[in-house]
Design goal:
Layout (H helix, E strand, L loop, with lengths): L6 E5 L6 H11 L3 E3 L3 E2 L14 E2 L2 H9 L3 E7 L2 E6 H9 L3 E5 L2 H10 L2 E7 L3 H11 L4 H14 L8 E4 L3 H18 L3
Parallel strand pairs: 1-7, 1-8, 2-7, 3-4, 8-9
Antiparallel strand pairs: 3-6, 5-6
The protein binds adenosine-5'-diphosphate (ADP) and guanosine-5'-monophosphate.
The site of guanosine-5'-monophosphate (5GP) has 14 residues, from β5, β6 and α4.
């Protein structure tokens, strides 16, 4: 894949703050875009079709797999999630940096395929992660337990990432992610 922009992969256990941080970055850097993934899960209250995700049926998703439309896809919490190859290629050619907010399985597949910068975010403690998930009120208690259990597995993948940011103070974490973008731009400058 010919790259003008850079690909940044951001992974974090649910509730860590990856959506919050990436949105902060996109607001301040017009040259950065977030990839809109496809998923077979249902929209949560407040989620907008084709803005947060492209919500697809299982059949529609499988047809895209068969057509080779995904740069990567993975099964997460019982649903399929995938990154559109054409979206990423198009944005890179326009010189945009593309942020893929995807899980650790997807990050691994991306790393094997393209030159991407991998950032892992974690919460300062498990108790704080639980507090954020509970406060967000988008998951049931049972789903929160499932996501906390999965978080333990995901953090074992930290050594495979280029950067690790602990999202304790939001503004500090933001400064760190913005510094990574600036550093990588410098490293990849022609
Ligand atoms: P994710 O996308 O990783 O699941 P979100 O961005 O939705 O996480 O954040 C989960 C919750 O935690 C949200 O309610 C958000 O406002 C809050 N949050 C994010 N970062 C911080 C932080 N540094 N300190 C306290 N709360 C935070
Ligand atoms: P959620 O359902 O909470 O939006 O996302 C669940 C998990 O799926 C998160 O870890 C999120 O990063 C991941 N995810 C979202 N989109 C993709 C994608 O396109 N590919 C992969 N592999 N994971 C994704």
């Amino acid at each position: 894949m010919r790259q003008k922009g850079l690909v940044f992969v951001v992974s974090a256990p649910a509730g860590t703050g990856k959506t919050t941080l990436v949105q902060m970055l996109l607001k301040r850097y017009p040259g950065c875009v977030e990839s809109i993934s496809c998923t077979t899960r249902l929209p949560r209250p407040g989620e907008v079709k084709d803005e947060h995700y492209h919500f697809l049926s299982d059949e529609e998703f499988d047809a895209k797999i068969a057509a080779g439309d995904f740069l990567e896809w993975a099964q997460v919490f019982g649903y399929k999630y995938g990154t559109s190859k054409s979206f990423v290629e198009h944005e890179l050619k326009r010189g945009h940096h593309v942020f893929l907010v995807i899980d650790t399985q997807g990050a691994k597949k991306i790393r094997e395929k393209i030159d991407a910068i991998l950032i892992f975010l974690s919460a300062p403690t498990k108790a704080e992660l639980r507090r954020r998930l509970e406060e967000r009120k988008t998951e049931t208690a049972a789903i929160i337990e499932q996501r906390l259990a999965w978080a333990e597995k995901e953090v074992q993948e930290i050594p495979n990432y280029d950067y690790h940011i602990v999202n304790d103070d939001l503004n500090e974490a933001y400064q760190q992610i913005a510094a990574i973008v600036a550093l990588e731009e410098k490293k990849h400058a022609p």
